[in-house]
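User: Let's play a game. I give you a shape written as tokens, and you guess the letters that built it. Ready? Here's round one.
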């Protein structure tokens, strides 16, 4: 909104109940630095209106001074919410802790630990809330089931922090890490921005529409996003090391995909000597079982097997449904060859080949609604 006078701005400031009421919502981007820049731009614009030196009239000066106090309060709050990726999110006033929930404190702030909603092999994911100034925003809280598994949390945090050191557009394919902590009994935990309306590939296949697999035109946009994520990760010398359907999460409304579960990630194996630390008989590359050399092609193999699964193919036999075009079937086949040296090596090259193939097979790309309700 554009304000003609400081009195108009002051009236809105008095009626505001949250920072978004003043600065607007700009959470369409996952890049927190972009959100911060947009906030600064809007704040400077409004700051010029409440500049006392612009006004000769004493009443106008008093209104400007009062308006600046409120403006600065909401500016500070907005920066706090951006820092934990909660700006523009639905928030509510915390009146009490619900039954079965508990609060805990970190250096960054206070959290409410909710119900468990994903039980993994080594950690549990809980619903949660980040509390600030008696408001709360939804988060996901991951805690190891035993202190013996803390190294997995360390690896995950190390990898995600590296991705955010100099983020590019592909950062939208990764979970946003907000905080780290330890429990009283020595277990490690992470706090993530909650991903609303997202579904892992197992959940997709459980949907009544996709019991026999998704249509290949849906599979290719999922694969395209996943290849973008791998291209970014591999550029940072990070291998995921454990890609399987529960670690690929789609958001149907905008066709985004998140690559999660970085607890078994591997950093620069040739330099560090780090190697595979988990084997999944259905989705891990053959060399993982033998603890062979960790190459990028292992991630590509696992991703290819996930695409066979989501298409409704036979994962054990590595067969692809008959209605899939030969060119596309051959493309997937190049990702799941037994030899790590013969299969596709570069996620970036695969992504470029995939985009060209989509146009050859079906013409210019079109957004297809993917239903999950």
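Assistant: Ready! My guess for every position:
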């Amino acid at each position: 909104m554009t304000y003609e006078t400081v009195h108009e701005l002051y009236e809105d400031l008095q009626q505001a109940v949250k920072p978004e009421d003043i600065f607007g919502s700009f959470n369409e981007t996952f890049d927190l630095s972009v959100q911060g820049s947009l906030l600064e731009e809007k704040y400077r614009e409004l700051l010029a209106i409440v500049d006392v030196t612009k006004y000769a009239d004493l009443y106008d000066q008093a209104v400007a001074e009062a308006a600046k106090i409120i403006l600065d309060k909401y500016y500070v709050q907005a920066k706090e919410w951006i820092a934990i990726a909660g700006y523009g999110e639905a928030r509510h006033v915390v009146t009490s802790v619900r039954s079965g929930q508990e609060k805990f404190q970190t250096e960054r702030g206070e959290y409410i630990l909710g119900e468990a909603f994903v039980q993994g092999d080594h950690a549990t994911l809980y619903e949660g809330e980040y509390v600030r100034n008696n408001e709360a925003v939804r988060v996901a809280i991951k805690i190891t089931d035993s202190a013996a598994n803390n190294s997995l949390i360390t690896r995950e945090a190390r990898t995600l922090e590296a991705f955010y050191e100099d983020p590019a557009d592909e950062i939208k394919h990764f979970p946003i890490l907000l905080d780290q902590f330890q429990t009283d009994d020595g277990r490690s935990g992470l706090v993530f921005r909650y991903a609303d309306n997202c579904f892992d590939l197992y959940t997709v296949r459980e949907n009544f529409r996709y019991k026999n697999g998704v249509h290949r035109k849906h599979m290719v946009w999922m694969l395209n996003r996943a290849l973008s994520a791998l291209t970014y990760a591999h550029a940072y010398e990070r291998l995921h090391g454990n890609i399987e359907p529960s670690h690929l999460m789609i958001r149907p409304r905008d066709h985004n995909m998140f690559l999660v579960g970085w607890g078994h990630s591997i950093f620069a194996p040739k330099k560090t000597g780090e190697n595979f630390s988990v084997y999944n008989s259905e989705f891990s590359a053959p060399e993982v079982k033998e603890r062979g050399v960790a190459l990028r092609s292992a991630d590509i193999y696992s991703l290819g097997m996930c695409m066979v699964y989501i298409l409704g193919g036979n994962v054990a036999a590595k067969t692809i449904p008959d209605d899939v075009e030969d060119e596309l079937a051959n493309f997937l086949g190049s990702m799941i060859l037994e030899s790590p040296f013969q299969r596709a090596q570069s996620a970036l090259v695969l992504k470029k080949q995939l985009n060209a193939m989509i146009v050859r097979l079906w013409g210019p790309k079109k957004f297809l609604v993917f239903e999950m309700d």
